[in-house]
Design a protein that fits this description.
Belongs to the universal ribosomal protein uS17 family. This protein is 8% helix and 47% strand. The protein has 90 residues and is mainly beta. Strand 1 and strand 2 form a beta hairpin.
Length: 90
């Protein structure tokens, strides 16, 4: 079974080796049809304490690490990259 990968923003990096990542999704309201935002926070494992509050990261599902942590941070998403920079990196 493939591991789920989500993208979100780090909202807390206060605990050791853990970051809290807020993942937002847009859903259509069942009755009114308006697009609304729903969010959920995930505790993710950050072995080197390298991710800071406000950064956009990708997290991947893992086996349980602790009571709350079943996700680990894969990498940082460069949200300020231009299409030319993305093509140069590939």
């Amino acid at each position: 079974m493939p591991k789920r990968v989500l993208t979100g923003t780090v909202v807390s990096d206060k605990t050791d080796k853990t970051v809290v990542v807020k993942v937002e999704r847009k859903v259509k309201h069942a009755l009114y049809g308006k697009i609304i935002r729903r969010s959920k926070k995930y505790h993710a494992h950050d072995e080197g304490n390298e991710y800071r509050e406000g950064e956009t990261v990708r997290i991947e599902e893992t086996a349980p690490i602790s009571k709350l942590k079943t996700w680990k941070v894969v990498d940082r998403v460069n949200t300020h990259a231009t299409p030319a920079q993305v093509a140069a990196e590939a």
